[in-house]
Write a sequence for this structure.
């Protein structure tokens, strides 16, 4: 049933993409670099504002001296807010990198510098997230962001329940990525055919990433 | 799996955060157990049983078809 649902969603998605390709004359279009970059950096800025608001909410909640069910409720909210911060921060970072790449490809020199600064700022906000974690959970022995084994240590300090939740999220993301990468390869191949602008390099990179992702997953669990 | 965790917490006047600290787990784990979304490991179950001074089988219950 799940497979049929995924197949149908894929078919509808594919149909929409193909329709768009035939309806829009991509070859005759000029890429509105500045407009696109302004939109991208506006999204990045919006993400930062969200992060700032969320960080203040976390700080305020962490300072409150609550007891009973209120304490549990506050802890639950802090936990959700930390994930909201992480999502906003990641979205900002992704759009910042995308903006930097577009600026680089279109050779808009001042925008390249802005792109680099925005990207660096976005990634530096990740380390601030760890400060928030430490503020929210002062009794937990959280590893330093600069630690070489940071990801491994973070997993080790998580308890069984937290790992159970992470496993569900990661498995969903893994399955989604497996399907999304295949569709991306099909989409890019189709784009190459329609526009006669070969994207072979992108196709090879995505295929390699797909192979590596599956290899990392399988070898992580088969040897246990 | 069902549990009497919420009832026992109320009996001993503990919130989830306090029980979590005593059982050396996160509050999220206690919440997941109470919502029947996660079956705790034997170690966590034993720690919780010790905190409430109850045998494990008096706290956690399995339905017949689960066994």
């Amino acid at each position: 049933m799940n497979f049929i649902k995924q197949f149908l969603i894929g078919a509808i998605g594919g149909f929409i993409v193909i329709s768009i390709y035939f309806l829009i004359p991509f070859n005759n279009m000029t890429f509105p670099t500045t407009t696109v970059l302004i939109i991208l950096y506006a999204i990045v800025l919006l993400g930062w504002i969200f992060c700032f608001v969320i960080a203040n909410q976390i700080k305020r909640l962490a300072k409150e001296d609550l007891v009973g069910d209120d304490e549990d409720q506050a802890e639950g909210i802090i936990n959700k807010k930390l994930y909201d911060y992480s999502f906003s921060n990641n979205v900002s970072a992704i759009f910042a990198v995308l903006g930097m790449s577009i600026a680089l490809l279109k050779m808009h020199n001042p925008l390249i510098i802005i792109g680099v600064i925005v990207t660096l700022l976005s990634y530096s906000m990740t380390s601030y997230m760890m400060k928030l974690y430490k503020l929210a959970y002062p009794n937990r022995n959280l590893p330093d962001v600069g630690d070489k084994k940071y990801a491994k240590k973070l997993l080790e300090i998580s308890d069984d329940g937290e790992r159970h939740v992470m496993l569900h999220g990661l498995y969903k993301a893994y399955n989604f990525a497996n399907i999304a990468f295949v569709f991306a390869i099909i989409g890019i191949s189709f784009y190459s055919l329609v526009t006669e602008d070969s994207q072979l390099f992108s196709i090879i990179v995505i295929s390699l990433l797909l192979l590596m992702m599956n290899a990392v997953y399988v070898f992580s669990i088969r040897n246990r | 799996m069902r549990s009497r965790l919420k009832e026992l917490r109320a009996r001993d006047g503990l919130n989830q955060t306090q029980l979590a600290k005593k059982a050396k787990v996160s509050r999220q784990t206690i919440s997941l157990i109470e919502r029947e979304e996660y079956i705790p490991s034997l170690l966590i179950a034993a720690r919780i049983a010790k905190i409430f001074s109850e045998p494990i089988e008096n706290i956690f219950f399995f339905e017949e078809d689960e066994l």
Q: What stands out?
A: Helices of chain A lie at 2-23, 33-63, 68-105, 109-136, 150-157, 160-195, 200-222. Chain A touches chain B through 16 residues (CB under 8 Å). The longest helix of chain A spans residues 68-105.
